[in-house]
Amino acid sequence: MFMNFRRIRKCQCVQLLTTGLVLCVVMVCWEQLDHHVVSHMRSYTYRYLVNSYDFLNSSFAINQHRRHSQESDGSDGAVGGVVSYPYLINHPDKCGGGGGGGGGHREGRTRDNILLLLFVKSSPENFERRQAIRDTWGNESYVWSKLRENVRVVFALGVHPDAGQRSQVQRALLQEDQTYGDLIQQDFVDTFHNLTTKLILQFHWAHRYCSHAHFVMSADDDIFVHMPNLVKYLWGLQSTQAGAKDLWVGHVHRGAPPIRCKDSKYHVPYELYPWPSYPDYTAGAGYVVSGDVAAKIYQATLVLNSTMYIDDVFMGICAKAMGVSPQEHVYFSGEGKAPYHPCIYDHMITSHGHATDVRSLWQAATDPAVDSVSSGFMGSLYCTAMRVMLLCRPYYQNTYSCLAAFT
């Protein structure tokens, strides 16, 4: 038997070329591979095996000597170590007087008893988005007349980042606020890297002017909130024996790693956060906290520095320092947009990514015919099947999980 050496050399050559090609691809894509695979493996190992974030208090704590010196000299420039920006537009009386009676029951509701204070994080130039929210899910009069609940909706914003357009936009904002009276603006530049400043604005304003609200919500201005479903959910929380305490609910990110890729919008350098995993946190697109948790987050902002510019991660750092853990709700959306279907609307709380279709979605989601679709045994069975088809997809959607189909 004779061996075909030419064929052997050809096979070896093909193997060598294939191996070289694979190595080249790995080398080119290593940064992405490291981010998507290796960093997540490190992060989850840290989160679920070590599961300790004791370093947060010491690493993010404000220098206590500096803090006490600021408090003793009566400086208005900072509260603790947090820069206090002056208000350009403010409505201290937005939440009315005191807490008003009523406990947690609908029968005792008064116009001063605020169920929910809802902050919408908005950019100065997004006039149309704010108007769409006022006309739909953010309409306070609708909530009072239809649901007999008192909700306060305000828009949190800074100043326009473009100095050339700033004065023109500011005049338009003042005119807008004169008409609607729902803008809360401080004198900081409204950019992505100042989102934590905007978060601090929300919790400080809530503490100072609306501490009697039972719940506080933070949401983006491209989010859709199914207000009737949200109010129903909050009613349910208040009717429980424990009441609405220690609540922080939304779309939870567990064991998320910092993004080290410098091209990413969410890039966080090692110097800012050297650990392999963030504390658990909820997606900043929309989450709800109870009044006692809002007070704890306010206290945390006084003792933790705010160098972490990703606001939802900073929220997680504050909550971890105060012993608060996020709770998952399957109908709070992540970054993805919820499927459009009556069987989804029946349970929807939030959906993200609605910059232009808020009005049409509001009309569809609040149509009385939605309730009839899922009524009865056959309707319930039909909607379960539809939700399975819409949510249990083989690819990642970052909206509602497959579990929501059976909830």
Q: Whole-Å distance between the termini?
A: 69 Å
Mean pLDDT: 84
The structure class reads alpha/beta
Low-confidence stretches: 30-34, 64-80, 98-108
Number of helices: 15
Widest sheet, order of strands: 3-6-5-4-7-12-9-13
| Number of domain modules | 3
Strand content: 5-15%
In the CATH hierarchy, the third-tier topology of the largest domain is known as Spore Coat Polysaccharide Biosynthesis Protein SpsA, Chain A
What is the string of helix and strand elements?
Answer: HHHHEEEEHHEHEHEEHEEEEHHEHEHHH
Count of DSSP E strands? Answer: 14
* Main beta sheet: 8 strands, mixed
User: What is the CATH domain class of the largest domain?
Assistant: Alpha Beta
Give the CATH architecture of the largest domain: Alpha-Beta Complex
What is the radius of gyration computed over CA atoms, rounded to a whole number of angstroms? 25 Å
Helicity, as a percent range: 40-55%
- Globally, the shape reads globular
GO molecular function: lactosylceramide 1,3-N-acetyl-beta-D-glucosaminyltransferase activity
Pathway: Protein modification; protein glycosylation
Pfam families: Galactosyl_T
Main location: Golgi
List keywords for this structure.
14% strand; 15 helices; 407 residues; 3 domains; EC 2.4.1.-; alpha/beta; Spore Coat Polysaccharide Biosynthesis Protein SpsA, Chain A; membrane; eight-stranded mixed β-sheet; transmembrane; 14 strands
